Amino acid sequence: MFIRTERSIKEFFELYPVVSIIVIIHFVLWASFSLFRLPIGATIFDLGIGHNFSVFHGEYWRLLTPVFLHIQLGHLIFNSFALVIFGPALERMLGIPKFIFVYLFTGIAGNLGTYIIDPTSSVPHLGASGAIYGLFGLYIYMVWMRKDLMDKGSANIVTVVFVIGLVMTFIQPNINIAAHIFGFIAGFATGPIILKNAVPFFIARVRVKRRDDDDIGFDPNRWKKKRRRPSALRKNIFWIILIVLVVFGLIGKYF
């Protein structure tokens, strides 16, 4: 479920348009403020950053807008990478409308939990972590209650990565603990309803057609082509994901 076999960025976008658009939004908003220092970027961040005291005074849109905003490059890369790894399978399993609902609902839940704990706080917060943990919550529900939707290897990967992420939530500085916890709870809680008609995700999925319907697709040199042998990648995918996430997490402390 978590091995990316897309042959190009274009194919990834065609297969997972929602995940792709969210990642693009992350980078565009970050670049407008942190990289190019555009006035519109500053305005977006000023109006969109999470701020409990402002929500307390009626600026309720701030429960949603922080989900798309990042200031530190490491934080941006970490969350976007996690979304690219763990989002595609859910987008295909749930369908676009349900996936959008889960992502936004859990992101709002994370920010709402932050607000409930300290509604008059003046400390700003932002990032997609609440929504990312919402996806983890849905996956953990599958692991416990809908084993028919996940293979054992994928279940082990997502469980271990989630446990490590949960531990890091409490030991790493400057983490919005409430957003992680409430996002996860919201994702887990949506499981019984949102997964009702879900179908398992298979890596050997039907790819986007690239030939005309009247093209038989015969390749006279097909026997000369080398077959892919991703077995080593499959066996070590957990460690690859873990190492990359840890590296991005460390980078996030300094950038």
TrEMBL record:
| InterPro entries hit by this protein | Peptidase_S54_rhomboid_dom, Rhomboid-like_sf, Rhomboid_protease_S54
Provide the Gene Ontology terms for cellular component.
membrane
Q: Where in the cell is it found?
A: Membrane
User: Which keywords has UniProt assigned to this entry?
Assistant: Hydrolase, Membrane, Protease, Transmembrane, Transmembrane helix
Which biological processes are named by the entry's GO terms? proteolysis
Q: How does it sit in the membrane?
A: Multi-pass membrane protein
Question: Principal localization?
Answer: membrane
Residue span, Peptidase S54 rhomboid domain: 58-196
Which PANTHER family does this entry report, sorted A to Z?
Answer: PRESENILIN-ASSOCIATED RHOMBOID-LIKE PROTEIN, MITOCHONDRIAL, RHOMBOID PROTEASE
Could you tell me what this protein is called? Rhomboid family intramembrane serine protease
Species for this entry:
Candidatus Pseudogracilibacillus intestinigallinarum
